[in-house]
Amino acid sequence: MAPKERQIRILEWDDLDKRKFYTFGFMMSMFIRVTIYPTTLIKTRLQVQTQNALYSGTWDAFKKITKYEGIRGLYKGFFINTFTVLSGQVYITTYEVTRRAFGDHASNMTKSFVGGACASLVAQSVTVPIDIISQHIMMQGSALNLEAGRRKVTFKDAQRIIHKIWHKDGPIGFYKGYTASIMTFMPNSALWWPFYHFYAEQLAFLLNASLHVSVPAVAIQAMSGPLASATASILTNPMDIVRTRLQVTGGDSILGAFRRLHQEEGISGFKKGLSARLLSTVPAGLVIAVSYEILKRLSIKPEVDYKVQW
């Protein structure tokens, strides 16, 4: 039986000019990181703080950081974090190649789920050491002190953090929380792609087929990205808190970190940083979906440009 025709056609790996794909992809990855980094920094600080809370919430953190550290404070650790651009290229390549490996023998849901999981697994091996260093830098100056907060973070600070991690734990220190990262980002990635395609298909059917409202495919995908991000973030937030704490403050085990968090703050502790995470991931879902789809359209091979749906 032939598969049902999709409302929105998916451009696959073999349809793309790889040289264009990686050139445009690098530029779009940098744009995305510049856009979402401040909310990532706020999320990290909220998740690391314990009962003696410096910030009462996302908005309070934003006000205090900009007051005591300036706008530049929202980008502490960014110069280290830019190295994750490489992992972004690794991620999307793994995702697309995994989808291609399934061919026509699996549903789009299966290809999206497995592709997202594999992409995250491979990319985290590159990302985790960079994340650990940048998260330590994010915490620099997180005090209600104008002089301490406005102190510029330099490359020497990064060197000092690298030396401290190496001296304390050796090479394994740069993979602190690696298992927690895998347990956070693999499910998040594995959930995001199927939900993204699901929401896109349902919205396209509702708007174009049922209500007969002509909506461009990119607009529908732009709505689907944030919905997928919100869904995946809510489901994986407890694990993200544990991952962040293990990477910044240390700890022996994931289970121990879960227990400490529950003992200190109860069930509500597992929601810490969720609003900041949603403020980061929901707009990021919009930016990622639109950037990714435009990137694929710009990278399409001339001989298959008939497949493009705007």
UniProtKB/TrEMBL annotation:
Solcar repeats lie at residues 16-101, 107-202, 216-298. One of its GO terms (biological process) is branched-chain amino acid catabolic process. GO terms for molecular function: branched-chain amino acid transmembrane transporter activity. It is found in: Membrane. Keywords: Membrane, Repeat, Transmembrane, Transmembrane helix, Transport. This is Solute carrier family 25 member 44. InterPro entries: MCP, MCP_dom_sf, MCP_transmembrane, SLC25A44. The chain crosses the membrane at residues 21-42. GO terms for cellular component: membrane; mitochondrion. The keyword Electron transport does not apply. The keyword Transport applies.
